Amino acid sequence: MVESSSNSSTALKSLIPYDENNHFPLENIPFGAFQNPHHNHVHCCTRIGDKVVDLAILEQNGLFDGPLFTQLRPKVVFEHHHLNSFMDLGKDYWHEARVTIQNLFAEGSTKISEEILSKALFDHDQVQMKTPVFIRDYTDFYSSKNHAYNVGVMFRGPDNALQPNWLHLPVGYHGRASSIVLSGQEIVRPRGQTSADQKNPNFSECKRLDFELEVGAYVGKSNQLGKPVKISEAPDYVFGFCLLNDWSARDIQAWEYVPLGPFNAKNFASTISPWVITAEALEPFKIKLPVQEPAPLNYLKDENNYSYDVELDVLLTTNTLTEPYTISKSNFKHMYWSTNQQLVHHTVTGCNLNVGDLLGSGTISSTEKSGYGSLLEISWGGKEPLSLPNGEQRTFLQDGDTLIMRGSCKGNGFTIGFGDCSGKILPALDESNFY
Amino acid sequence: MVESSSNSSTALKSLIPYDENNHFPLENIPFGAFQNPHHNHVHCCTRIGDKVVDLAILEQNGLFDGPLFTQLRPKVVFEHHHLNSFMDLGKDYWHEARVTIQNLFAEGSTKISEEILSKALFDHDQVQMKTPVFIRDYTDFYSSKNHAYNVGVMFRGPDNALQPNWLHLPVGYHGRASSIVLSGQEIVRPRGQTSADQKNPNFSECKRLDFELEVGAYVGKSNQLGKPVKISEAPDYVFGFCLLNDWSARDIQAWEYVPLGPFNAKNFASTISPWVITAEALEPFKIKLPVQEPAPLNYLKDENNYSYDVELDVLLTTNTLTEPYTISKSNFKHMYWSTNQQLVHHTVTGCNLNVGDLLGSGTISSTEKSGYGSLLEISWGGKEPLSLPNGEQRTFLQDGDTLIMRGSCKGNGFTIGFGDCSGKILPALDESNFY
Ligand SMILES: [Ca+2]
Ligand SMILES: [Ca+2]
Ligand SMILES: [Mg+2]
Ligand SMILES: [Mg+2]
Ligand code: NI
């Protein structure tokens, strides 16, 4: 173990040892769900260092002893397959749970017995993570200006790159919730309709299979149908964040998307990272977004418009390149419309959000080619192949490729990480599976 | 066994009296959910004549005594808030439940005691219906050629009315599941961004509020992610149908929908009728669809492509016109792409359907102006107002208007009806609710 040496460090000290580069220090306290190998049940959990901690075991043993959780008894929220019951309690409970866990595992803490530790702690590489949240509705936005501009330049040239509505509202569409999968699940290359001449279709495997680097926001509070959320209230509705790969079949999308938007091109899978990193954990990494010009309409106006300084890395392995190679370095700060603005816009016509809903940020690209959030941009529509260190080239994803997203925030003496969001591409099914 | 009887009429005879115009004869046996006023629980139910029948009570008393349900015990499927558990059993169980209910309530049946009848039967106007199915994912298609052609003519002229992809695939988009509401729930007129010049937006109440006449199909079988459904298997996946009003804010849609499709214009509410009319009940009303030209790709090809002969009526009341006035008469047979084709196309890239998913047909318009499925078409984009019998005119919906959809099939001596799908428009919230 590396000693986290520095005197100037403000890092918390834990009874579970980890070094300062570990992505799960006491400052993080992410929430997730895992298969408890003793119980053979799915329980809610957190992670500290390299240990996954079963929160249901702590709860059963009365260790959530703050005033709010004490009043909640005998109701339990962590002995569940998903975090939704916990999320539904609201932000005061989220805070109390976080502080309780930080105190339980603080260096020198004696609140938690050896016996309970032996039941509640698991090596992270010995357990299987599960989908952390039941996501009833999933919405994907399109709110990075660099990304929208790049795509616009490719399709319409630089003078008309942004559509007329883009600077006035966070463009979004409803996505498919059922096909959201957890990091690690393999992705079968889709097959569907494509059309080179935009007239006659072919039935073909996707030849322009892409990733989209996104951050997902989990809704932690519901609003009533017909009752819009105000921008000042929006932060209360955001429980936390994950990494999101909105896999995209570009050739299928190009043929199908007029006039009602992407459908088969997106609904075959979207991958999420296993942990929910809370808004509270990211608080020190808040970063003010630039003033929006033109000024948005009043309902979207936010004096305090922010995103977070989360470094986002995209890495690739292939059948022959086994060491992950970084193909993009972006950041969650490259947003034009904030999560709060997206959420408010979602409800403006009265749409009701439920606890557990997922809002995708949209592909996040930096201004530099080294930080583009999709292969469509990196290879500039397939015209400028990316060279890999072993001599391979890529325009779009090949069978056997594994795409990995990572996110992290550098604090003073600690790092908050998101956990990998990865998926490997399997070959398309042959035609006999279709008719 | 059920006798399909006799001389002039083939109608079944029931121990619950009803006349031949009643929409809920023994030939129907719809499934729904209602608040049982004795228990104060939501249970699954059916309807016969003017009686709502609590299926949980029948199940508790061992009256589902066919071989499949007998083997199922002690598991119960009707003592639930939604039909999903029942639907998940599959089509052999759907059939057995239907036949069991038809036999229990056949004329002369003595299988069901007076005591149970008194506990299980309720006057339909004395009980509150509930959302019949938990809908996790909702997809809306755009599959009536007459409708797509009308909209295309308005926006692009007759020569380019259909987009290039329209005759090759059932265009669809993912909708918002959370805001699906039951018939009778009032609809708050949405407020949002509109732009007359397609350049500068206003924050305005919707001034072009419309309905869309659709039929919804409930998925009754799930497919695994990555495993497409073949057209020959598709009928097993369709449990039944409802009426669906896909409320649409045309002015909001016009500004927001490029390039990712409708969002706020649709997500404020969609109304469903309370009953699920099973595919089995509609079997006698199957109607072969015309041969498709150009021929679809193999995966969509169906020698036996069908819809159903369901008359669809749209009626309107206003603050001063209290007698419902018929503003459109269409039919579910006016489909180009069938429900089976929509379902197969949905899964072609590997998307997984879940039991309870709802597939909207898309607005169903006949070839005649008297059978258009939206006010956009009826008033031809607002240029040809509709005259009501009391002298009022309508281009789009006004506050206080109630829009009612009805569906029915005329059999030999009986009628199968869907139950009303209605909603009344309330005024928009004032701006103080938004910021
Ligand atoms: Ca996306
Ligand atoms: Ca529609
Ligand atoms: Mg996706
Ligand atoms: Mg709708
Ligand atoms: Ni357990």
UniProtKB/TrEMBL annotation, chains A, B:
Catalyzed reactions per annotation: 4-fumarylacetoacetate + H2O = acetoacetate + fumarate + H(+)
Keyword terms, alphabetized: Calcium, Hydrolase, Magnesium, Metal-binding, Phenylalanine catabolism, Tyrosine catabolism
Keyword Disulfide bond in record: no
Pfam families: FAA_hydrolase (PF01557), FAA_hydrolase_N (PF09298)
UniProt GO BP: homogentisate catabolic process; L-phenylalanine catabolic process; L-tyrosine catabolic process
Protein family per UniProt: Belongs to the FAH family.
Record-given protein name: Fumarylacetoacetase
Name of the gene this protein is made from: Contig19765.g20967
